[in-house]
């Protein structure tokens, strides 16, 4: 009888356990977690041509020109093997290379600057533990007037605000964690916030979507606007999407977002994904209609565009 | 009949054929969009049922069965020359055909497995198959 009771109890316990989507096993190593969140592997691997992991060479077509990502393996000659941790921190925080060269903001130091020292250190340790690959970097293909890198100092003066993320008082720990991840390592705004003709973010349009995303893609408005953004998504819809790629309308992530989920977001702890959802659902709603040209428009079609 | 008139008739017939071809592509793009929309609806339903948020198990079985039927032979809906500005299919659908067909087949296999035994695990396998194809082959 006691046995039957226990069995019944066990059955009932199983039955009332919250049923959720099947998530990947979260990772324990802090460096890998930061690495996954930052999506380093996506841009720094030329997956399309079977390039070695993190050895660079992926083409990034932007309205300002074509960039080729560099090798970030620990190879001393073609990678970042001779860098110091201070060099690495400076690259992420200031967008300046060890040789003093200015980086183009196609490398999203504009967001990575928000990362904490501890996260940068953990990421450095992780990157230096990866296999070194010898692969020379390929030059960017830019219009002549953009090849003069000192001009980037002016760009930074106009559009870059340095400094690690500062928590906002009066907001929850989860919200602040989400804001930190979105604005820092996650660099969501780099694609989801529209830019002006000089490549700076348009003011007051955080995460409002862009018609000129990487590789000519339309990047959706993810503000809580009910018509043009994802205002109809609940927080748990958004967290589930980031962990699984499944949208509440049954469609799934595609293209660059599918890469970000597959290589990174799905490995984050659920609490981090919920934190991201806490923050993203709190940004000002924007009715910026980021959708493909020539489409019929309307709510349904627009939501299917990502 | 004068030779130039004959040529004119041939040209007219030719352009009619081209227009017919374009119309077919147009319908095909609409058809596969509708099919994918149906897939999306069924996946969205299944996800809600599996999370105990709405719906019931009988509908889960029905949705899974329908998915298995719709996902048979997806690649055939993307024949050569069916690219279109109205389509979200990337050119790689045709330039990397073998890989595209492999992933389309994977979606078919996982749909069948989901229909056979609908569960959170088989749903996840299927949604991973959808995503892995949409990652490289859809805008």
From TrEMBL, chain A:
Keyword Ribosomal protein among record annotations: no
Organism the protein comes from: Parasulfuritortus cantonensis
Gene3D superfamilies associated with the record: Cytochrome c-like domain (1.10.760.10)
Entry keywords, A to Z: Cell membrane, Heme, Iron, Membrane, Metal-binding, Repeat, Signal
Localization, UniProt: Cell membrane
Residue intervals of the Cytochrome c domain: 26-131, 173-284
Organismal lineage: Bacteria, Pseudomonadati, Pseudomonadota, Betaproteobacteria, Nitrosomonadales
Region spans: Disordered: 284-306
Protein name: C-type cytochrome
A GO CC term attached to the entry: plasma membrane
From TrEMBL, chain B:
GO cellular component, one term: periplasmic space
InterPro entries, per the entry: Cyt_c/b562 (IPR010980), Cyt_c_II (IPR002321), Cyt_c_prime (IPR012127)
Database matches in SUPFAM superfamilies: Cytochromes
PTM description: Binds 1 heme group per subunit.
Pfam families from the UniProt entry: Cytochrom_C_2
Biological processes, Gene Ontology terms: electron transport chain
GO molecular function annotation: electron transfer activity; heme binding; iron ion binding
Domain of life: Bacteria
Leader sequence residues: 1-22
PROSITE patterns: CYTCII (PS51009)
The keyword Electron transport belongs to this UniProt entry's keyword annotation: yes
Binding site for heme c: 130, 133-134
Membrane-spanning intervals of the chain: none
Keywords: Electron transport, Heme, Iron, Metal-binding, Signal, Transport
Keyword DNA repair recorded: no
Protein name: Cytochrome c
């Amino acid at each position: 009888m006691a046995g039957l009771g226990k069995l019944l109890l066990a059955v009932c316990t199983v039955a009332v356990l919250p049923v959720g989507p099947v998530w990947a096993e979260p990772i324990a190593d802090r460096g890998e977690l930061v690495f996954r969140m930052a999506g380093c592997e996506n841009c720094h691997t030329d997956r399309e041509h079977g390039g070695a992991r993190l050895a660079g060479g992926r083409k990034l077509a932007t309205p300002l020109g074509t960039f080729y990502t560099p090798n970030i393996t620990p190879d001393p000659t073609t990678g970042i093997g001779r860098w110091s941790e201070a060099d690495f921190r400076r690259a992420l925080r200031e967008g300046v290379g060890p040789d003093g060269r200015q980086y183009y903001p196609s490398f999203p130091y504009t967001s990575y600057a928000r990362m904490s020292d501890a996260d940068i250190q953990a990421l450095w340790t992780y990157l230096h533990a990866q296999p070194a690959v010898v692969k020379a970097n390929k030059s960017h293909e830019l219009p002549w007037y953009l090849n003069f890198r000192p001009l980037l100092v002016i760009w930074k003066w106009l559009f870059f605000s340095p400094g690690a993320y500062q928590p906002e008082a009066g907001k929850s720990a989860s919200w602040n964690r989400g804001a930190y991840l979105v604005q820092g390592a996650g660099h969501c705004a780099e694609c989801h916030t529209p830019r002006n003709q000089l490549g700076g973010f348009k003011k007051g349009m955080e995460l409002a979507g862009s018609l000129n995303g990487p590789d000519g893609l339309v990047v959706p408005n993810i503000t809580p606007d009910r018509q043009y953004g994802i205002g109809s998504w609940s927080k748990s819809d958004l967290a589930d999407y980031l962990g699984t790629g499944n949208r509440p309308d049954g469609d799934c992530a595609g293209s660059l977002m599918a890469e970000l989920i597959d290589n990174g977001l799905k490995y984050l702890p659920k609490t981090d994904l919920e934190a991201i959802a806490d923050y993203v659902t709190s940004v000002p709603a924007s009715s910026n209609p980021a959708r493909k040209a020539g489409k019929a428009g309307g709510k349904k079609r627009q939501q299917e565009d990502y | 009949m004068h030779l130039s008139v004959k040529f004119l008739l041939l040209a007219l017939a030719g352009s009619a054929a081209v227009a017919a071809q374009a119309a077919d592509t147009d319908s095909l793009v609409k058809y596969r969009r509708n099919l994918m929309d149906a897939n999306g609806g069924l996946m969205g339903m299944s996800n809600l049922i599996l999370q105990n948020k709405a719906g019931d198990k009988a509908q889960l079985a029905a949705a899974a069965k329908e998915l298995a039927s719709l996902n048979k032979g997806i690649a055939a809906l993307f024949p050569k020359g069916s690219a279109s500005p109205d389509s979200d299919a990337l050119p790689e659908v045709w330039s990397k055909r073998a890989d595209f067909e492999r992933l389309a087949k994977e979606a078919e296999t996982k749909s069948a497995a989901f229909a056979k035994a609908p569960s959170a695990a088989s749903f996840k396998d299927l949604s991973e198959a959808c995503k892995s194809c949409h990652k490289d082959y859809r805008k």
